[in-house]
Amino acid sequence: MNSGVDKVPIPVNNLNYKAVWEECTDILKNNVNPETYNTWFTPIIPVGWQNEQFVIQVPSRFHYEWLEQHYQNIIHAALSQVVGEDVPLVYNVVQKDEHQTFIQPVAVKKNIGEYMGDDTHLNSRYTFENFVEGKGNQFAKAATLAVAEKPGKTSFNPLVLYSGVGLGKTHLLQAIGNFAKEKGTAKRIRYVSSEKFTIDFISAIQNNRTNEFSQIYRTVDLLLVDDIHFLLSKERTQEEFFHTFNTLHQKGKQIVLTSDRPPKELVGLEERLISRFQWGLVAEIQTPDLETRIAILQQKAEYDSIVLPVEIIEFIATNIKSNIRELEGALIKLLAYSSLKGMDINIELAKIALNDILSTKKRDVSIEKIQRVVCEYYTIPDDLLRGKSRKQEIAYARQVAMYFCKEMTRFSLKSIGLHFGGRDHTTVIHAVRTIENELKRGEKKVVDEIEIIRKKIEVAVL
After folding, report:
1. Which residue would you say has higher pLDDT here, 107 or 123?
2. Most buried by CB count within 10 Å: which residue of 65, 104, 205, 453?
3. Would residue 155 count as lying in a domain?
4. pTM tops 0.70
């Protein structure tokens, strides 16, 4: 639309919306790879102008959220470049239920929260209500909620949450801030990553604004710092954070930190900081169990208005175990693959779409490792598992091992049988079906036992 020739401005509502979007797509094609474009931009339908806002339609809430989170800026930039001015964007999201299809308009929010601007930096999506609780995070959830209800008035100060990546530390951390903000339990709240804290501090030094920087961080009622391990070996920043911590703690203000490991293992952090981090409560978030993984996927599907068969959710939850981020990533990949191919989601499609993820999971699992873990669990010698003994306890352990070999490796049934004393594939099939039937009956002892062995195998291949 911009030819470079001066002309009388045309009201945006008078511009041909289809031509505008066509030019936008030309720009977008040059900014993303072809697969990304086909998956996320081809399904977009331009709708028109509405009160000088450009309206586009997307096939689901999931699609809208993905575009907003990952491509909002380049879509907005392309639209502004074509039209010649800053134009608000509105999505029409197609929502489906059992009886009808309807459109829900969603306005895109502009990014806020630059340094020295919005002083919370919180993401409103992270709440306690949409955090899926399970055995591995119950304690951490209870501790964060207690802190959110009474910041600085519990013995959990500081509160330190630690876990591996993608297990919900950031979600709980920001949920504290959003709860406190909504309920008014803290007035001045600031969420920041330790990396952002470091960048802001360096910028303050360069611009002679260290007093202003200190004033911002030392006058809050609730300080939420993500990934504190990023401060390792940054001596000047650690010094600043030490004084910030002391000032807030002495005033009875609440401090909550997250880390990828417990404070005592933060090698490269000053001892005086490590000591202070252990003054309050240190809570671990563990890997979610199968039930929690299923609940997380169900919640994600419901939130995005996506109908998924139960067997699909169970398939993903059973095969993706390491962290929530990877779990949701698998769901996103499956949905994207389904959209790209124009195919309904079923088990066969899921296996194809997630093949590379599942293959990576199976790559490092050997039959020998599975046999060793099973033998250790049941306290039987390795040679009996591969031998001819038909004693009930030996035969059952052998079936369990075969079951895990089928589930967790890429070996054929014939190859698995050969590793168990030259047994044929029908024996393996019988073993697998026996354990699957046991699990379907849902006897707690069996389910718990299989889950314990599964976790031990996963640990053995790390």
Report:
1. 123
2. 453
3. yes
4. no
